[in-house]
Amino acid sequence: MGQTNIDAIVEVSPALLRALRDPTFYPHPADRVEVIETHISWIFLAGEYAYKLKKPVKFGFLDFSTPELRRHFCAQELRLNQRYAAQIYLDLVGFGPSPQEPVWGGSPPIETAVRMRRFPESGRLDHLQSAGLLGPREIDAFASRIAQFHQHAARADQNSPFGSVQVLRETLDVNFRTLREATGPSQAGRIDALEHWSDNACARLAPLIDARRQAGAVRECHGDLHLANMVWFNDDALLFDCIEFNEGLRWIDTLNDIAFMLMDLEGRGERALANRFLDRYLVATGDYEGTALLPLFKQYRALVRAAVTALRLHQPALTIEERAIDHRLVHRYLELAESYMRAKPTRMILMHGLPGSGKTTVAAQIAPELDAVCLHSDVERKRLAGIGATERSASPLDGGIYTASVSQATYGRLLELTKALLRAGQSVIVDAAFSDRSRRLEFVELAKQCGAQARIISMDIPPDALRARVARREGLSGEYSEAGRAVLERALVRHEPLDGKELDLTLRVGLAGRIEAIVESILGAPTPHDTSPPRSSR
Q1: Inside any domain, residue 528
Q2: For the segment 176-186, what is each residue's pLDDT rounded down to a tens digit?
Q3: Residue 98 belongs to domain spanning
Q4: What's 309's domain CATH number?
Q5: Closest CA to 73 of 310, 220, 243, 188
Q6: What is the dihedral of CA 18, 21, 25, 26, to 10 degrees?
Q7: pLDDT tens, 334-353?
Q8: Angle at 260 between CA 293 and CA 344, to 5 degrees
Q9: pTM above 0.85, yes or no
Q10: Cα 135–chain centre separation
C-alpha cells in the first residue's frame, strides 16, 4: 500500500462516468443511479443491478492502470465470486468503442464493468450487526458455508510462495509503512511495538506456517472476509467482493481467511459471536491445531483495516467529519491489534455426564461466553472414521465405531487436540462422557502442565429424565450422538462417580441449571450451586 503511481495510467473516460450516472443510459428500468466510491472502484446502483467499474489506479498491491488490466481483473472478480454467490455475480458489460461517445455493449470495449444483482443493503452483516439483528442463526450458517467453501477450494502449489512467512512479512511491512506515513511521529512508538511483536510471532510460528502449507491449508480463499462482504440474502449465507487483484492476498491459509471475520466481530464488541463462529467452523473442519496462528492472523487483519482506512485519508473528496471518523477508526484498529499481543487466561472444562444429560447443549451454549472452543467426542469419533458429524454410523453396541479400541483412539485424539489448543492459549471445553476416572485425571493433569485452570461440569440428571430424553432423541436427524437406551442403561451401571479431589473442581448442574449461572461460576463470580435447566433437552 502506498501512494498512487501516476506513471502510464490510462484514465477512465469522463464521458463514460457521466453516462453511468444517467438513468437513461441503462438498457433496463432505473429511476435513479446511486454511486458508491472506494479507493479502487466505483459502484453504480441502477434499478435491479449494480455495476462495478475499477478505478485507474496503481498501488503496491494492485495495478488497474490500463483498460486491459481492468478488464482482466473484472473477469477474475466474476470467476472468483461466482464460487459462492453466482446468484449475485452475473456477467461482464463492455462499453465502447469511443471514449467520447461510449455505447452500452459497444465493441471493442474501452472499459468493462462487473454486473451484479442488487440485494438489500440491510442484509449485509455489518448492517445487521449495527441494528442488533446479527445472531446465532446467521453466524452458524456462515460458519458452515465458509467451512464448506474452504474444504473444496483449490490448493496452492507447495512450491509457490503463497501463504509463506516471507509473503506474510512482506504484506505486514507494507501495512506498517503505510501506517507510519499516515499517522506520523505521534504513533511511531506503538507501531514499532506492533511490528516487533509480529516479527517475533512470525519467527516463532514459522515451522507451523510451513507445515500447514505443505499439508494443503493454503488455498484460493476469499481474502477480504469481513462483515461488509457478507450478506444474508433470500434466507441464505452469501459471500461477495473477494480479492481478485492480488494472488498473494487471496492464496492464503484458511485460518488467515476467517481471522478477518473474527477480528471484525471482536472490533465491533461481538466477542461471543466471534467465539461461536470459530467454534462452529472448527467443528466443521477439525482444524484445531492451527489455532496458534490466530492471534498473529487477527493482528494482521486489524493492521490491514487500519492501513486501508489510513489510505482512504488521502482521498481529496473527504469532508472534515469523514476524516475525523477515519482517524478514529485507524486508532481503534491499532488498539485492537495491540490486544492480540496480550496473553489471556486459559481454561480446560470437562463435561461429565451420562447420555441424554445435555452435555453437548450446555457446552455449545457456554463456549462463546467463555472464549472457548468445544471438542466433541461424538464428532471426533466419527471424524476418525471418515463420517460426517451428524451422519449415522449404524454401529451396534460395542461394534463399529463404538469398540473399545475406537474409544481409546477417540480419547487419545481429544487429549492431543486439547494439548495443542491449551498451548496455543485457547480455552477448551471437552464434551465427552468421561465415565472413567483415569481418563478424567489424564485431562486434569494435562491442564496443570499447560498452566490452564481445570474445571468439571457434571450434568446431574435423574435416570428417569435421562431415559425420557434419550427416547425423544433416538431417530432425530442433526444429532452428534447415537447413544440410545441400551447405551444409557449400560452407562448407568458402569459410570465411575467423581471422587473427592475431582469434586473440588466440579460444578454440578441439575434440571434447574441456568446457562448464565454456569458461566458466572466458571468465571469466578458468586453463584448458587444449583441453577435453572439447560435451554435444550439433549
Answers
A1: no
A2: 998 998 888 88
A3: 14-118
A4: 3.90.1200.10
A5: 243
A6: 140
A7: 999 999 999 989 999 999 99
A8: 50
A9: yes
A10: 15
